[in-house]
């Protein structure tokens, strides 16, 4: 039969702020001064579906404070009018850690009832994820650096001696006299020794807002690298093979793909402005 007015009232809510604090303090029932037992979970889901709302995994992003947003706005102000020729002078760099067995909750298998533990339906994993490798790389529209394997923790000394001096400086020289280094604000990148080296080597370094991986096109390079390695069958058997494939695929990414990533910088600036320094879709 028809649902009660109470059920219709409670189920027709839309845009309710369902954050953790609100969930701790209230239930749907007492939020609307109604006994919570009058509404089933399925009724609520049905009404949400009627409004076009579906449960989705949230997009994960870094925390942005008011200071972070202000810094992002300042960065946008400085770079929004840049043309492609100017972005072509930038060497975008970053580190990334690749796991031998990535924790991907999206993996699904097709199986029949009762075959949950059958051959091919069970995803075998080593303890502790099988380990990982950290790599560093740099991209520009004109050239890229080799993919460097970071052994152990990245320190300021290692960053200067193993990355900046042998890899970054030659790359910047090859890009041209107006080349710019982009690196983030990780402590090894901003150590006193590194800052001194940057000045002595006369490296032009871009000021970068903290907590802003969405503004760096190399993040999508890591995604592409991950997809390419995951296409290998069988998957890498050990960390050495994983590193070998990463370096192989890094060298195999088409230059046109990298150029398209860097050509998106103007749109990233526009979205940063549109969101008042907040997260972009990148």
Q: Please, what is the average pLDDT?
A: 82
Helix content: 40-55%
Q: What is the number of helical segments per DSSP (H or I, 4+ residues)? A: 12
Per CATH, the superfamily of the largest domain is Ribonuclease H-like superfamily/Ribonuclease H
Query: Strand fraction band?
Result: 5-15%
- Residue ranges: pLDDT <50 for 5 or more in a row? 2-17, 19-27
Radius of gyration: 24 Å
Q: How would you spell out the order of helices and strands?
A: HHHHHHEEEHEHHHHH
How can the largest sheet be summarized? 4 strands, mixed
Classified by CATH, the class of the largest domain is: Alpha Beta
Class of secondary structure makeup: alpha+beta
Structural commentary:
The protein has 282 residues and is α+β, with helices and mostly antiparallel strands. It folds into two domains: 5-50, no CATH class; 66-274, 2-Layer Sandwich (Nucleotidyltransferase, domain 5). Helix content is 43%, strand content 9%. The chain is built from twelve helices and four strands; from the N terminus they run ααααααβββαβααααα. It has helices at 5-11, 20-25, 28-31, 41-50, 66-79, 84-87, 156-175, 192-200, 218-230, 239-252, 255-263, 265-274, and strands at residues 90-99, 132-139, 148-150, 180-182. A four-stranded mixed beta sheet has the order 3-2-1-4, with helices on both faces. α5 crosses α12 (265-274), α7 runs parallel beside α8 and α9 crosses α10. The chain is globular and about 70 Å long. The two termini are 47 Å apart.
In short:
The chain has 2 domains: 5-50, no CATH class; 66-274, Nucleotidyltransferase, domain 5 (2-Layer Sandwich). The protein contains 12 helices and 4 strands, in the order ααααααβββαβααααα. The protein has helices spanning 5-11, 20-25, 28-31, 41-50, 66-79, 84-87, 156-175, 192-200, 218-230, 239-252, 255-263, 265-274, and strands at 90-99, 132-139, 148-150, 180-182.
